[in-house]
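Form 7-S
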Amino acid sequence: MKRETVITATVFLVVGFLAGYITFSLISSRSPASAMAAASTQPQGDAPAAETASGTAAGANRALPEGHPAVDTDTAIRMVQQEMAQNPKDPKPPLTLANFLYDQKHFAQSIEWYQKALALDPSNVDARTDMGTAYFSSGNPDEALAAYRKSLEIDPHHEQTMFNLIIVEMEGKHDLAAARKAWARLHQQDPAYKGLDDLKQKLDAAQGSPGDVPQ
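Output:
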């Protein structure tokens, strides 16, 4: 996945094969200090990508230990189902699978598992933002916006979500007024946010009139 801005730390999928028994665990937890851009379906080709908080997404195998064989989607789903049967209240297994599926670009499937994780941990803004990005990547900007707005209800200062909102308003809904308003909100909070200047240039170009975005 192409890096665009700063996001939360990565959640890696670790798979170990021990006597035919497959297990997995999360190695690192999220930290609100970093961010990664998601590979998404963009209507205009050169548009910036919405962010994801799920970590590296250059393919799920990057999340595996070096030299480890690839893990197919069906195997990953079975592993998570087994883990969830043992720990039905733990949101980490479905969230790990959601991130895995997102990295594989199985966006519709990832949304299902983000929903399962959020049912167990509804205040997880990172997961909700990732789900919104999955919606956007699957061509559903309305659901993406709904997820982002819910995230901002929980954390009004969540910058990844604010950044994504600009992109979806501009590229998904073609609502330049809403996109410029969202841009101004993030600019007021963090003028140095990486990628924000590029979005301003794209907004100005789309508007056909360069100049400052109103504050």
